[in-house]
Request: fold
Amino acid sequence: MQLLNGLDKGGAYALIALGLTLVFGTLGVVNFAHGALFLLGAFCAVTFQKILTISKKILDPSITYFDAYIEQPYLEIWFGETGLAIIDYAVPLSIIVTIPTMLLIGLAMERGLIRHFYKRTHAEQILVTFGLAIVLQEVIRHFFGANPIPTPAPDIVSGSAAVGTWIGLGENFVYPWWRLIYLAVSTAIISSVFAFLHLTTFGMVVRAGMYDRQMVAFLGINVQRKFTIIFGLAAVVAGVAGAMYAPILPPDYHMGMDFLVISFVIVVVGGMGSLRGAVAAGFLLGILQSLASMTAVSSLLPGIDQIIIYLVAVIILLTRPRGLMGRKGVMED
Amino acid sequence: MMKQLMNLLKKQSDLTTILMFAAGVLTMPIWLDPIGANYPDLLQKFVIFGIFAVGYNILFGLTGYLSFGHAVFLGVGSYAAVWSFKLLTMNVLPAILFATLISGLIAAAIGFVSMRRSGIYFSILTLAFAQMFYNLAYSVLIPITNGETGLQLRMHDPRIIDNYFSDPLPGLPSTDFFGMSMNGYSGFYFCAVVLILAFYIAMKIFRSPFGMKLKAIKSNQHRMRYTGSDTRPYLITAFIISGMFAGLAGALLAVTDPLAGAERMQWTASGEVILMTILGGVGTLYGPLLGVGIIKYLENIFSTINESVLQQFFSFLPQWGENIMVSVVSPFVGEGWHLTLGVLFMIIIIFLPGGLMEGFSRIQKRYRKAKIKDNQSDSTKE
Amino acid sequence: MTDTVLRISNVNKAFGGLQALSDINLNIEKGKVHAIIGPNGAGKSTLLNVCVGLLTPDSGTVTFNGGTNVIGKSPHEINQMGLARVFQTPEIFPDLSLLDNVMIPAFAKRDGAFHFKLFQSLSGETKITQEATEILASVGMDDKLNVIAGSLSRGDKRRLELAMCLIQRPHLLLLDEPTAGMARHDTNKTIELLKKIKEDGMTKIIIEHDMHVVFSVADTISVLAQGAIIASGTPDEIRGNPVVQEAYLGGAEL
Reply:
């Protein structure tokens, strides 16, 4: 049970960490604004849902003795039942909008800012993207306020799946549908990113670039444009991860920062520049976190659920300097 | 002869620097009056965060190690000071000593572990420790931190030393320094004296072989090792000193307002001190203080502006112009002050990574060059 | 044998399947300039890295000043024992002034590996400042005391690095290709410098490509080929050694 709970969180961690690793494996940039991309993705879903539910005030026909207004979404007025169904599926549908939006944002970010920081020190990269993260976060707060915005999943999957009966663990063993879907989607995205990297020539160049950046540049391959695309791709992955996560955790403006710290820890634990390490560490830490919050564990070691991730990170950083699967020489000075 | 003169000048400059600095800090209420920053609350913030930034600069400015966990020491300092008020006495002296000591110990522990790595790994390690402390303050450590409410003074706190000498007075007591109340201007002057001392220590470190060695570690740690210096103890010492400065600042926050909350320890609070240091100029003696002044001043001004103030400000424009300006500017003020901060920060890093101090020296150089050219053209005329 | 500064005994080192050093035995005598030459990939740099503790050999010992084993020691300990090194690519403090660059090694020599004295005043360090200025003068750079080292030319950086080592008056100075990548003019300048500092009796190991440099400054030459020492002797002996000519110089007349 806790294993499953950890998996969907792990999925989100893995997706963010994947993008983060891609970016500094190839571009050599430490992007502290990556959490903000996750945040923007989540708010793509929120915005999409808000647009769909733009409503018109109409007289409530069921109350006759005074003028009572209710709000009815235009979509319902125009399309009736179909309209309502579309609203219900706002989150999954928002992916359609999220992907191009995030791609655009990613490309703009690389062209406008990140590109000029390839040659700067890591400290400066961290600081400028940290500044950008603050800016993006505050922009979101300005438009959406400081409170979390509930963004429900479609009704049909709002219940729980009887996972227990499927695998013969009894009926009490249930799991929310949406989390199951999240897990499936994140697995799908991760596999497609890996497939992309391993099966296409573009992917081959990228992998070569992660291995030895200067070498690829020597080959005369136009790395500049490839970098831009990679950054866009990472932004899309983070954005979709965020959009799909909205029903699990109502998005608020500082979720980007919250996830950023954890995902950085994950990247380091997995090993800088190792995609597989990032994914593995993402799931591993997600599961560990859920396990640590079990009552049995937390009564034994109070507070362990709050710090388990960081504790693991510190231990791994000190005992395995390159993380679980990192190679030598990445981001070491 | 020439050399002796030079040495004399150098020696004197230590003394003159600190005297000028002291004069500048103590007269703040006078020269900050015209820009509307002369009230105790803000003045206290200037000097307290000044101590924080001066200490942070000893680590980041001299060694180049970017810590994302220094807010922890600020928080620890505050908690330790409030506990001293609760258990021992309302006198601020033991509180400050206690807080500095505790944060020094914690800094030693964190520094000892984190300094095993460098570069981004070091940053992540300090970040991880900061998050641990922050999360624990809201869970297991609630008996010490009082969770989200924050640690406060209560009527029935033991205050052993105070109660030994006199009967408890009715009402909540306030902090004092041997009878001098720590509210208002007297609180500011107390903090200002502490800042001057702290600045003096920082200046001595900057101008010592020790500080030079730290700069050398930042410049080329590899060479430093092959030159016979064990860099690790130097780095850990720098980390502890800066942690103690942060703890001292945290204690002073509690001195001027005896309340401690965990939000002081959030990693974004560490981000703020980084920001101040960089804005002013990393590794320069005065830069961090300049950064603190600007950020705290802008925070104070910007966060109080609301829409009606803006409307008044732009009222000279026609109605439509006023509306446009108000809607453009309003995201940046009031609640949106952090947006301004983020933008400011990005601009500085992109265009002026050395901070404002670098900007000044650039201008100075240009001015000097122009002057030399002038002189040359003058001399050719002759 | 009391005048042996560095004794390398039976040192072996392999990288994967490649035997980089096989059974190296070498005695560096006090006051001598000992050059190690050999073609690319002969193992010269590996040998030097073993001597300064950067690499741990698979077997064998390196003892310094007749007793202490160097292997397993950290770089600063080895330096504190009195062994300084000039790197192949100049390693200096690029953000600091030339004077600071030279003062720091002097402090390390005087203060030891770690010295906790926060409030010592730099301006009171007249003796070391004086010393640093003199050393910089001896390498011909006393006109640039306050120049930032990162802005120097490559040749100047190398001379600065040499000054940084000389101020420590080490028992043994290791020079890794001191003229690599230098223009002829700079090389000659460096040879002059090396000859000049030869007179002070400091023991040195020089790894060098440039035969002109080697034969102008070395007292003893060891030839390394494929990880083994194939000949050792005075410059004249080496010049006349047919094995060396065959293996290393391809039969060319020196």
